């Protein structure tokens, strides 16, 4: 999964295919939803429902659309940055929850969430540096 995300990030850098990057993030968000649904059915922990709702919201936000994310469309640029910040916040929170063993999830998933946050952080930094890229 991490290799898949790095490949998508490479595609965004080289070919500027933002829809592929959004699809990769959207695909990644479906995995915690499925895992948390199964775990919630076993232990009825309310925190799991909160995590499911967070990732369902993230799936809706990252669904690929035909919106133009170029530097001329200022509303789309502002929206894409806010979506990026929300992806960073959600994945940092879930990675923190996993690495502190609050939900008893294997630790490698916490590191994967931190990787998503780093990739998104780099994407936002690059869009700030090069206004024509985002």
Radius of gyration over all CA atoms, rounded: 15 Å
Secondary structure class reads mainly alpha
Treating each run of at least 4 consecutive H or I residues as one helix, how many helices?
A: 5
**Largest sheet, described in full?**
none
Tell me the number of structural domains. Answer: 1
How does the overall form come out from the CA principal axes?
elongated
Which stretches of 5+ consecutive residues score pLDDT under 50? Answer: none
Fraction of residues in H or I helices = over 70%
SS strand fraction: under 5%
**Roughly how many Å apart are the termini?**
24 Å
According to DSSP, the number of beta strands is: 0
Supply the key terms.
134 residues; mainly alpha; 5 helices; 79% helix; 0% strand
Question: Care to describe what's here?
Answer:
The protein is an all-alpha fold and 134 residues long. The chain has one domain (2-129). It contains five helices and no strands. It has helices spanning 2-15, 18-43, 46-62, 74-99, 107-129. The two termini are 24 Å apart. The mean pLDDT is 80.
Summarize it.
The protein is mainly alpha-helical. The protein is built from five helices and no strands. It has one domain (2-129).
List the helices and strands and how they pair.
Blueprint: H1 2-15, H2 18-43, H3 46-62, H4 74-99, H5 107-129
């Amino acid at each position: 999964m991490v290799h898949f995300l790095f490949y998508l990030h490479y595609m965004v850098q080289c070919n500027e295919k933002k829809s592929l990057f959004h699809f990769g993030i959207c695909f990644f968000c479906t995995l915690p939803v499925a895992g948390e649904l199964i775990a919630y059915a076993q232990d009825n922990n309310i925190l799991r429902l909160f995590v499911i709702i967070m990732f369902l919201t993230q799936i809706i936000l990252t669904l690929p659309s035909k919106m133009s994310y170029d530097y001329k469309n200022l509303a789309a640029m502002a929206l894409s940055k806010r979506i990026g910040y929300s992806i960073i916040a959600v994945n940092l929170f879930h990675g923190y929850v996993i690495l502190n063993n609050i939900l008893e999830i294997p630790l490698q998933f916490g590191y994967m969430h931190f990787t998503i946050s780093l990739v998104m952080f780099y994407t936002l930094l690059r869009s700030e540096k090069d206004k024509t890229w985002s």
